Amino acid sequence: MATGEHNTLATAQDADPADLPEGAVITSSGRVSAAENFSDETDAVDQPFTPVQLARLDEALTLASRDTGLNFAIYLGDLGDDPEKRSSELHDSLDDPAEAVLVAVSPGQRVVEVVTGTEAHTRLPDRGAKLAVMSMVASFKESDLLGGLLSGLRMLADQAGGRRRSS
Q1: Residue-wise pLDDT tens digits, 88-133
Q2: 33 vs 74: CA distance, rounded Å
């Protein structure tokens, strides 16, 4: 799962790229970003994104989260026999699920789920999420997984609007 939150590995000033774990990069903004594997059985050949693509995805997640004040996350992998239930479980495991938006994609199952928390749903109604899913699916059909995720995140963030200001 990738999220737009700051990583606790190290700051860019402290990090030597050669010492970063597999799946970690220093982004153009100077943050250390890392993808987390939930399975020990994956080979590097099976990874869907290059380090540069992971950095782009992390930057898009960070910008969407920062601009809207919502916590955006992406899950890419098998969603099991009940994709809707599994997506909800993954969403509920996020920090502050009420303000979280999860985009769960299972390419092998041809499933895309967008799950919003109670607070996030007030700013991102079903219609907006459906439009983003349709855009992602169109890119996925053209074998553009990264492009679909990036455009979907942009659309979801645009639909949610800017960060709410406290009075």
Answers
A1: 999 999 989 999 999 999 998 999 999 999 999 999 989 989 999 9
A2: 14
**Are 157 and 103 in contact, with CB atoms under 8 Å apart?**
no
- Delimit the domains of the chain by residue range: 2-160
pTM of the predicted model as reported, rounded to 2 decimal places = 0.71
CA distances from 90 to 101, 132, 139 (A): 11, 20, 24
pLDDT in tens, 52-100: 999 999 999 999 999 999 999 999 999 999 999 999 999 999 989 999 9
CATH class given for the domain over 2-160: alpha beta
Which residues, in sequence order, are CB contacts of 149 under 8 Å at separation 6+? 57, 60, 74, 103, 105, 136
Contacts of 55 (CB under 8 A, 6+ apart): 25, 27, 28, 33
